[in-house]
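Before the break, one more example. Copy the sequence into your notebook; we will annotate it together after we see the structure.
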Amino acid sequence: MFHVEDFSSHFGKNAAGIRAVNDVSLTIEAGETLGLVGESGSGKSTLGRMLLRLIEPDSGKVIFDGHDVLRASGSDLRRLRRDMQIIFQDPFGSLDPRMTVEQIVYEPIAIHGSEDGRSRREQASEVMRAVGLDASALRRYPHEFSGGQRQRIGIARALVLRPRFIVADEPVSALDVSVGAQIVNLLKQLQREFQLTYLFISHSMPIVRYLADRIAVMQRGELVEVGTTQQITTAPQHPYTRTLLAATPEMQE
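Here is what the structure looks like once it is written out:
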């Protein structure tokens, strides 16, 4: 589905001259979850946003279902973006407090259009039910919901266009453990229901081990190791991957 070659970006280049993303190449297969792990500042979120062209790379190529994403413009880019959405990390800052939930969830359709002939309320209600919220929530505002409920609203917004690929950018890091576990299980359920492909960005190896088919490890803007979840968590090859695992007591079983 996604093939990335030699992706680089100077966005966020630090004082030591380390680029946020430096010559990254990877493939994400249709229907899989690729977990992207690394410490804060390793370039994970920058890479995710570059795939969607929320940040423009300085160099490289990204092919999505045979289409060159970086060369696309105008209506071609809008069509591609219907199939590529993002779930943000912060369920409090990512929802406009002045908008009702219905306006928030429907906003992607207002921007990109919809091939679904049903009304706005019908489409919004369906994705709200899919994320475990009642359609009556559509008339309310974000401040009336808990953090976990707000993240469900953010997921509904990402789903409403029926995308095939979603970047989940640390979607549970701002939530407590029990609520985060519910969101992770929801994402797994939605993947089956909507036939989604995920790039799941996280600093938590246990969560990634549970959710991902394969794991990619980033350090200082570079991809240092990629393998199946079993390979990465039981027989890591790179010293940095071993360090990440050693720093996680739950992984030492």
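The mean pLDDT is 88. Residues 172 and 183 are 7 Å apart (CA to CA). Try to locate both features in your own notes.
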